[in-house]
TrEMBL record:
Main location: cytoplasm
Chain positions recorded as ATP binding sites: 10-13, 53, 57, 161, 167, 170
Binding, UMP: 52, 73, 134-141
NCBIfam families from the UniProt entry: pyrH_bact
Reaction catalyzed: UMP + ATP = UDP + ADP
A molecular-function term among this protein's GO annotations: UMP kinase activity
Native source species: Campylobacter majalis
Record protein name field: Uridylate kinase
A Pfam family: AA_kinase
Regulation: Allosterically activated by GTP. Inhibited by UTP.
Ranges of residues in domain Aspartate/glutamate/uridylate kinase: 5-215
Pathway: Pyrimidine metabolism; CTP biosynthesis via de novo pathway; UDP from UMP (UMPK route): step 1/1
Amino acid sequence: MGKKKRVLVKFSGEALAGESGFGIDNSILKYIAGEIKELVCNEFEVGIVIGGGNIIRGVSAARDGIIKRTSGDHMGMLSTVINSIAMREALEHLGVSVRVQSAIKMEAICETFIMGRAQRHLEKGRVVIFAAGTGNPFFTTDTAATLRAIEIEADVIIKATKVDGVYDKDPKKYNDAVLLPELTYKQGLDDRIKVMDDTSIALAQDNKLPIIVCNMFKQGNLLKIVNDDEDAVYSIVK
Ligand code: UDP
């Protein structure tokens, strides 16, 4: 893969919730902040996008027709701001310099997304957390992450999950399932695999942005991946 310099790490809101499936588990927050700190300490420039599924997803909020889908999506985007503020605190607690930039203006809480400003923060070694998705309903935080990765000219987007990568068949059902080290964008779009939603993958493909899928709960794996370490575990879509 070759060593990377600037990376965008995306993880879902659910990852922050831990066992309970809702809200934020501070021990997980601390663990993830520690993994991100490792990247910063090794001179990588890091952008982060966090989902909001641990609090509200637009589709679920709008499921019985009381809340409109667009309002549900606004609520979803605000959930990502909550998660981003929590992550900012956890990183600062570890001494990492960090800024939150929101796609929706909320100046009492954080900066508004300005591409050039984000670039400068990154150059100065600050982590930038991109909050509030794309700022538009009907999109996902995977799309927001891909968009921001392209805008900041990241070398790669890392979709950090609870699984090691993409397998040839469901590893929960088949114990001979094999991790696929490399996939094409077309394979990544396959319904069974679907590393991200179609919009994100199309955007990544059009802009030749490689997507890495990996397990963020394997300690040290993120750093191994960006360092192009031999025993790094991941799948790459490119
Ligand atoms: N969302 C949105 N526009 C965006 C990104 C997110 O409307 O550009 C809303 C949408 O309702 C989504 C919610 O924010 O369900 C949380 O994001 P997502 O579902 O991607 O979070 P994850 O599943 O990664 O935790």
